[in-house]
Design a protein that fits this description.
InterPro entries: ATR-like_N-HEAT (IPR056803). This is Serine/threonine-protein kinase ATR-like N-HEAT region domain-containing protein. It comes from Araneus ventricosus. By secondary structure, the protein is mostly helical. Among the domains are: 177 residues, no CATH class; 106 residues, no CATH class. It contains 23 helices and four strands. Strands 1-2 form a two-stranded antiparallel sheet. Strand 3 and strand 4 form a beta hairpin. Helix 12 runs antiparallel to helix 13. The protein starts with a helix and ends with a helix.
């Protein structure tokens, strides 16, 4: 956005022409665009939109009409410049009041976007020429959000019949009033008779402030804390559309400003993050398009919060209580009634949030309560029952592979060391230490594998991955007294397994896996079958799988190959 301001400011201009131009704009607005209820036709809205376009061109071509800056040092010329500045400022502040009036009128909905864009460009013009006035105008917009919140409260409490704002942007009431009289400006006021009317304007102002976030963090960093609190309040109490705009705005604020807020606002911010995420997953939507927009906004909010929490300056900002509550709420949201109906982007963001905050807690030494651990283990079982959400499947894999070891649910856990100094875990020396929830998980996974049929669309790699997880996790948790963990991939694993009878549950999982591949994918994915039996050979070494156990599998599946023949098969 490039305004040739300096070029015009240094030119001499005709005061009479400037006055006539302002009068023309003033009369045009008063005669045609002040009573918007009387001009609701599409043609009138098209005319108003064209007028906005004309105004925007005027910002570029004759900016001194709207902003004037001192350029002379002579006393007489300085007096005239002060008058020019006063006239241009009064006219511009009156113009902003009219733009607010348009934004507040439901009859002008079709031109609200054009109006908001014009307001934004006008503020940019002011910023390029008078930073002080720009700060004043933006602060007034932020304060207006608070005033509108107060009006809504008065309406809800029954303490107001009509609320009104007028002459809102005037910084010097007496001086601007004199200039307004000279310019023949008609005073504009906005009346509100319902809380919905207040919220409608809040929504537009919030959207406008979101467009100004970079400028706010640069020119008004002292206002960021106040703006954060106001936006959180709107997320908490606002209707659907206002929630969406507030989430979008606060996401932009956190992206540009980080988490440099007061402790109370940090807690409020995370409370809003938790509440709005859970709201999206449990609320019965009434306006589909708005709700989808809210999902997208919350998804962005989650991603930005993850990014900023991971910054060094935020490392120790979260308390154990806040972190644990965030994980608990996100997990609850992922099992909410609407989660699987939400967008893939939203699902991915929620899952990414759970995984990130778990890892963040581990890295920063947080200790999670047992109830949260149990909630997560139950969540693993629930999530694996879903065949429609790749995000939930990804989360289940993560929790099994990582959280099942970092946050164990038994009582018999100790730490050891590799020879090179790396840490290892000694887990669950007997089955008494295995939680019932984890046993349910293993049984659920086998059930899923056994019930897959050709008429169900499922990712073959996912089935293979689940089977591997089952084999590894069951063996580690049930049948290993000591093990060293390096990689999760079977081909690279360095597990040292005690010689025990091969568990029937593992054989069942082999059967389920092989049946699925043979029944559904034999003709198209022959290589996968071969790869599977290569894994069987590997497991013979890892798990001491004997010819007898392999024979059991082959007999059940009617597989004609011997172990030796499988070993000679190409990949």
């Amino acid at each position: 956005m490039d305004y040739p301001v300096s070029q015009h400011m240094n030119k001499d201009h005709d005061d009479f022409s400037d006055r006539k131009f302002r009068e023309t704009l003033n009369i045009t607005i008063i005669n045609n665009f002040l009573d918007l209820k009387a001009s609701t036709s599409a043609s009138n809205h098209a005319t108003l939109s064209a007028f906005f376009h004309h105004m925007r061109n005027s910002f570029k071509e004759i900016p001194h009409i709207f902003v004037a800056s001192p350029v002379h040092h002579d006393a007489d010329e300085n007096r005239q410049e002060k008058v020019d500045i006063c006239l241009s400022t009064a006219f511009t502040e009156w113009l902003m009041m009219w733009l607010l009036h348009v934004l507040s009128d439901p009859c002008a909905t079709s031109v609200h976007k054009d109006c908001k864009d014009l307001f934004f460009y006008l503020l940019q013009l002011i910023k390029f020429n008078n930073t002080f006035n720009f700060r004043h105008c933006v602060i007034r917009l932020i304060d207006l959000l608070s005033e509108l919140n107060g009006m809504v409260d008065r309406f809800v409490d029954g303490n107001a019949e009509v609320c009104r704002i007028e002459n809102y942007f005037y910084s010097d009431e007496k001086l601007k009033s004199e200039c307004a009289q000279e310019l023949d400006l008609v005073m504009i006021s906005i009346s509100f008779s319902t809380p919905d009317e207040c919220e409608a304007l809040q929504e537009k102002i919030t959207s406008l402030l979101e467009m100004l976030i970079i400028d706010i963090t640069q020119f008004l960093p002292d206002q960021c804390n106040n703006l954060c609190k106001i936006l959180c309040n709107q997320i908490e109490l606002g209707e659907l559309s206002l929630k969406k705009e507030s989430v979008t705005a606060i996401a932009s604020l956190v992206r540009e400003h980080g988490l440099m807020f007061s402790v109370s606002n940090i807690n409020y911010l995370f409370g809003c993050l938790q509440a709005i995420t859970l709201f999206v997953c449990t609320f019965e939507e009434s306006v589909f398009d708005v709700f989808r927009s809210l999902e997208d906004a919350v998804s962005l909010f989650l991603k930005i919060m993850i990014e900023k929490v991971d910054k060094p300056e935020s490392k120790y900002m979260l308390t154990t209580s806040t972190l644990g509550k965030t994980i608990e709420v996100l997990s609850e949201a992922a099992t909410g009634p609407r989660f699987l109906d939400s967008t893939e982007c939203f699902q991915s963001s929620v899952v990414a949030g759970i995984i990130f905050f778990l890892q963040h807690g581990k890295e920063n030494g947080y200790s999670f309560p047992l109830i949260l651990q149990e909630h997560l283990s139950n969540f693993v079982v629930t999530s694996l029952g879903s065949k429609t959400s790749k995000s939930l499947q990804h989360l289940a894999v993560h929790l099994i592979k990582t959280e099942g070891k970092n946050y164990t649910f038994g009582t018999n856990q100790s730490m050891g060391r590799f020879e090179d100094g790396q840490e290892k875990l000694i887990l669950f020396e007997n089955m008494r230490d295995i939680s019932e929830t984890w046993l349910q998980f293993y049984k659920r996974l086998i059930y899923i594998l056994n019930t897959e049929t050709s008429d169900k669309v499922i990712d073959v790699d996912l089935v293979c991955s689940y089977t591997e997880i089952l084999l590894r996790s069951y063996c580690e948790l049930h049948h290993i007294e000591k093990f060293e963990f390096q990689e999760f991939s079977l081909s690279e694993s360095q597990l040292h397994v005690s010689r025990r009878r091969f568990p029937p549950l593992i054989i069942d999982s082999f059967n389920a896996h092989a049946k699925y591949l043979l029944i559904n994918h034999f003709s198209s994915t022959y290589e996968k079958i071969i790869t599977f039996y290569k894994q069987v050979l590997l497991l013979q070494d890892l798990l001491r799988l004997t010819d007898e156990h392999y024979g059991i599998i082959c007999n059940i599946l009617s597989i004609p190959w011997t172990l030796e023949e499988v070993s000679r098969m190409p990949h």
